[in-house]
Amino acid sequence: FLGVMPAYSAADDALTTKLVTFYEHQPDSSVPSHQATVLLFDPRNGSLKAVLDGSVITAKRTAAVSAIATKLLMPAFAEVLCILGAGVQAYSHYDIFTELFTFKEVRIWNRTKEKAMKFAKSVNGPVQVCSSAQEAVTGADVIITVTMATTPVLFGEWVKPGAHINAVGASRPDWRELDDELMKNSVLFVDSREAALTESGDVILSGAEIFAELGEVVKGTKPALPEKTTVFKSLGMAVEDTVAAKFVYDSWSAGN
């Protein structure tokens, strides 16, 4: 797939387009499944100001949005973090989640256990490698799914009541990470209603009702409901790349 994600932010005085290539299940695993480039333009005349590493920006901004959702939606006493998947997004989520939150235990599961072992050895803190997704999820307060799954890997019967889930993978209308039980028995938050109803298999195929966009919670027009079991379905929005790219460019321009 080749994705094109243009956006303009008047507030940030920024105009960008992100180009994303996505190749599923490549035999050469040294090449990421997703590769991206962000083009930053001058909104006044359309001239190109910068070409930025979109893969880094995508990884960082996606994890940052998950962290915002978690700050608002996670239970009051969250001690156990679980990550399903061990790719680029697992690393970026681990970095920001361990920086912003204090978890007593971090667990990881990956379909290929070697990748999970490599992850545990390469990050800065202690990580427990689990032999099954169920083992990793059981009793976890915050769960992050960053897999390449096309059928559910996380099931509602495993999930602790009141847990918060960041569902980041399964970005196609026929792909799933979460089962119907979890989708229908949780309070569902999304980054964009429009995108979720056309792009997210977890939302479309389960028929789950969207309670709110994350922006509505940030603005205070919808409640967060951290006492409930919550799911944040993250698909990513072009404006996130725009704001991040402008932030990087401004920092670089200022010599920082």
Automatic annotation (TrEMBL):
It catalyses: Delta(2)-thiazoline-2-carboxylate + NADPH + 2 H(+) = L-thiazolidine-2-carboxylate + NADP(+); (S)-cystathionine ketimine + NADPH + 2 H(+) = (3R,5S)-2,3,5,6,7-pentahydro-1,4-thiazepine-3,5-dicarboxylate + NADP(+); L-proline + NADP(+) = 1-pyrroline-2-carboxylate + NADPH + H(+); L-pipecolate + NAD(+) = Delta(1)-piperideine-2-carboxylate + NADH + H(+). It is an enzyme of class 1 (oxidoreductase). One of its GO terms (molecular function) is thyroid hormone binding. One of its GO terms (cellular component) is cytoplasm. Its EC number is 1.5.1.1, 1.5.1.25. GO terms for biological process: thyroid hormone metabolic process. Belongs to the ornithine cyclodeaminase/mu-crystallin family. This is Ketimine reductase mu-crystallin. It comes from Psophia crepitans.
